[in-house]
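Help needed: design a sequence for this.
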């Protein structure tokens, strides 16, 4: 059986992409100033589903301009190493990792499908040393930097699973966000996770007859 997990807010207790972008911005005065100038426009765009990809691409380009593919991967690997060392305000959710292991123990296949860039998500997940397939947002070069190509969110997560050979339905889905409703609706056992009361409120809004909520 297939168990599908979101990453940020589900397996991780924060937004890995936002933290990585800010980490890159704060290390460079020009990037920092450019981020501050762009933020009043880009951040509201990120918050709105229709403009999220464009807003994220603005901040992504500022953080990565000047990086070739090798340097991009090295940046993600360095970020992941500092995350593993506990040097960043980002942690694995204990219940999330335990749930992963329970699925592996039961012989299930596990896929993480995330709006985070695939290259970043893979770097973060690799040290877990588990056979996890990662599907995320693809990036492309644009004017010397990197921007989002295919943004892996909402219905696109289901399309990514189908394109990877996992069909239209899966046994389990875990996420903290109602932006993942298509993912939840495709699962036989959908689970909304988070702090107890918030997860239950989201479950009520989702109106999933087979859904459950869990405090992670």
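Sure. Designed sequence:
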């Amino acid at each position: 059986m297939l168990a599908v997990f979101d990453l940020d807010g589900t397996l991780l207790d924060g937004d890995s992409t936002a933290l990585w972008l800010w980490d890159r911005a704060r290390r460079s005065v020009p990037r920092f100033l450019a981020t501050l100038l762009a933020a009043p426009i880009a951040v509201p765009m990120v918050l709105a589903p229709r403009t999220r990809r464009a807003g994220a691409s603005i901040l992504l380009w500022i953080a990565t301009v000047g990086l070739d593919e090798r340097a991009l991967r090295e940046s993600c690997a360095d970020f992941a190493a500092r995350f593993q060392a506990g040097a960043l305000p980002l942690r694995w959710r204990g219940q999330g990792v335990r749930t992963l292991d329970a699925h592996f123990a039961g012989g299930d296949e596990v896929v993480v499908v995330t709006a985070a860039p695939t290259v970043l998500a893979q770097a973060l997940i690799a040290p877990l040393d588990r056979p996890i397939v990662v599907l995320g947002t693809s990036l492309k070069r644009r004017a010397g930097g990197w921007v989002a190509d295919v943004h892996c969110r909402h219905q696109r997560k289901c399309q990514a699973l189908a394109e990877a050979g996992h069909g239209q339905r899966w046994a389990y889905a875990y996420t903290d966000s109602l932006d993942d409703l298509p993912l939840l609706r495709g699962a036989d056992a959908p689970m909304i996770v988070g702090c107890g009361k918030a997860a239950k409120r989201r479950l009520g809004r989702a109106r999933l007859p087979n859904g459950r909520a869990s405090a992670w």
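DSSP finds nine helices and eight strands in the chain.
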